[in-house]
């Protein structure tokens, strides 16, 4: 799957789905990004791999906040891992860092699916 410079690999797990992101999450993909993932998080626990995301705009953080809200409304988990310093910083600046389930590694996040 490709969204204007952001490739997405989907890995199915027993109790959820891992989305391996590669590229940047910019303002111009906000609607497509939110639309694609909103359908997914309504139905399954979701883990987003940010290992290969170098940049995320504030609208990207807004999309993550909306996805987290949809997950909670549907009794699903929405988790992130592999945040690089610049992505972590933008989430911290928006004061949302403590709102998300953030893990260092994929293994830590996957353990939370059980």
Structural account:
This protein is of the alpha/beta class and 114 residues long. The protein has a single domain, classed as Transcription Regulator spoIIAA (2-Layer Sandwich), CATH 3.30.750. 38% of the residues lie in helices and 33% in strands. It contains four helices and six strands, in the order E-E-E-H-E-H-E-H-E-H. The chain has helices at 30-41, 58-73, 85-93, 106-111, and strands at 2-3, 6-13, 16-25, 46-56, 78-81, 101-103. The protein has a six-stranded mixed sheet. A hairpin with a 2-residue loop joins strand 1 and strand 2. Helix 1 packs parallel to helix 2. The termini are far apart. The model has no long low-confidence stretch (mean pLDDT 93).
